[in-house]
Amino acid sequence: MPSSVMPTSNRRGGDPSSATAVSALGLRKSYGDKVVLDGIDLRIPAGSVFALLGANGAGKTTAVKILSTLITADGGQAQIAGHDLTADPQAVRAAIGVTGQFSAVDGLITGEENMLLMADLHHLPKAEGRRTTAELLERFDLTEAARKPASTYSGGMKRRLDIAMTLVGDPSIIFLDEPTTGLDPRSRHTMWGIIRELVADGATVFLTTQYLEEADELADRIAVLHNGKIAAEGSADELKRLVPGGHIRLRFTDPAVYQTAATALTGASRDDDALALRVPSDGSQRELRAVLDWLEAADIQADELTVHTPDLDDVFFALTGDTDQPTEAVR
Questions:
Q1: CA within 20 to 30 Å of 36's CA: 141, 151, 212, 295, which one?
Q2: Which of 7-16, 77-86, 281-290 has the lowest mean pLDDT?
Q3: Would you call 164 helix, strand, or coil by DSSP?
Q4: Consecutive H or E run containing 43
Q5: CA nearest to 74, candidates 32, 20, 43
Q6: Are 50 and 205 within 8 A, CB to CB?
Q7: Rg of the chain over CA atoms, in angstroms?
Q8: Contact 278, 235 (CB under 8 A)
Q9: pLDDT tens digits, residue range 164-188?
């Protein structure tokens, strides 16, 4: 994949100097008696990847639909690219691009025709539309397939075409609603590369996903949506520190040194077979420094030191209480 995936022209809407791409306060949405969003707050810095994490039916797609003007909220307010969501929806639409979890590609026409149709919808002059189409097809490695019916494309190719179509309008904020659903591992990793390149080129990405590994790999900040509320928000590392079980593992090759360390470190759990000690830790630099300082002061040399923190699976299950859901369902 080439190093850039954005058009060279700059038609982005909104205020490029704004430090906040998306902000929301108290967003609410219900369908009948079902409360989907129960007053959520969001603040997404420009030029970052934000991941909204949640199980099926948690309200992730509803949040995207509200913020992209596809549906209206029952309450709350939001600003997108500096524009008020309710007062200036047209300006919001001009600043954003949206790729849903189900492909918007028309399989009856070619990839090129899908792109040109999108250019027409953005009211681009014919010459500019053709130039932008050719550029994006090349950058998404779709030139050879451009004149084949999109129905013949693989799942990964359709997703790449989907995002290429989204970029025709050169949006500053891109909503990707479960963009890798149904993709094989290779195609998923390709999509991750595309998302990283979008942000490197200045875009802000709002990503919804069920895949915990995906959020961990891509997102600067992650929010966990559960029962209509934001259960927790932070960087992946910050979220992992919310869950007990983090520790520093010290392994020794000399049994005598191991015994000395085990005697002195009364709070550590022992693994006599592996000659290893496990010291509870939240994974912070402060606690790691404290262990290193203790080893130095006691003149004890550990042969191996590793820091273990809970992963996002642990965080997700702890925050949602969904201990019966198989890990594979949300990875």
A1: 212
A2: 7-16
A3: helix
A4: strand 34-45
A5: 32
A6: yes
A7: 24
A8: no
A9: 999 998 999 999 998 888 888 888 8
